[in-house]
Specification:
With 247 residues, this protein is α/β, with parallel strands linked by helices. Strand 8, helix 7 and strand 9 form a beta-alpha-beta unit. It is globular, with a radius of gyration of 18 Å. The structure holds pyridoxal-5'-phosphate.
């Protein structure tokens, strides 16, 4: 099977198309079982958690197998890769941008995405608000929060989040965070903090902020126990499958 077509270069794997599909189905079943188990432990309804399959490590041919397997929420971290992949996949896919959005890429990205998880500065909020006004539309986003305070991570600090005000053209639906790559159990405090910050913001803004995007391959079970409504899972889902070079 030929997979991947980055920069016009296809590459080969000795897996057949059926092997690829079987392996993906097995991986997905394992992830799904863990989502269900975590929901059960937390006394939550499975329907309250959306699996966002992060397809950045695989080509469109593999990503395109997901909707038929019941996964139509797909995530990409780079706007340019999303622009390239979206037209190659069924229109029923709901795209999530989970990485940094540069302001000069807003106009091309917004029409393609259901939700931007990674709104990480007030300047970006202002630019999104301006674009929404120009098109007389609305923009659905999450605010990315750097809960753990790692210097390498973007996002609002918990303190700067307190200064933010709600915006009329933006549907700020909730918060997103990335936990450090440490033992899942140690991420629990990060996820609980994000939930508390959300609760405070809801109180201050006097409206509901229903979404919490937290949890990746390493820690999504714990994130669900702490209230995640969107989990972003990549590597676990595509384990054993041919990858594009870009992580
Ligand atoms: C890559 C990425 C993920 C998925 O991470 P995995 O460990 O591969 O599951 C989730 N969220 C963001 C923001 C990412 O960049």
């Amino acid at each position: 099977m030929v997979v991947g077509n980055r920069a016009g270069v296809g590459y080969f794997t000795n897996m057949t198309a059926a092997d690829v599909s079987d392996r993906l189905a097995v991986n997905l079943r394992a992830v799904e079982n863990r989502i269900r188990a975590a929901c059960e432990r937390a006394g939550r309804d499975r329907a309250g958690v959306t699996l966002v399959a992060v397809t950045k490590s695989v080509g469109p041919e593999i990503a395109a197998l997901l909707p038929a397997m019941g996964v139509s929420d797909l995530g990409e971290s780079r706007p340019q890769v999303l622009w390239a992949k979206a037209p190659a996949l069924p229109r029923s896919v709901r795209w999530h941008l989970i990485g940094h959005l540069q302001r000069n890429k807003i106009d091309r990205t917004l029409p393609l995405v259901e939700l931007v998880h990674s709104v990480d500065s007030e300047r970006l909020i202002d630019a999104l608000q301006a674009e929404a006004a120009k098109t007389d539309g609305r923009v659905r986003v999450l605010l990315e929060v750097n809960v753990s305070g790692e210097a390498s991570k973007g996002g609002f600090s918990p303190g700067s989040l307190q200064q933010l005000t709600d915006r009329d053209r933006m549907d700020i639906a909730g918060l997103m965070t990335m936990a450090p790559l440490i033992e899942p159990e140690q991420c629990r405090a990060v996820f609980a903090s994000l939930r508390h910050l959300r609760d405070q913001l809801q109180h201050r803004w006097g409206r509901s902020l229903p979404e919490l995007s937290m949890g990746m391959s390493n820690d999504f079970d714990v994130a669900i126990e702490e209230g995640a409504t969107l989990v972003r899972v990549g590597s676990l889902l595509f384990e054993g499958l041919p990858r594009t070079n870009r992580a």
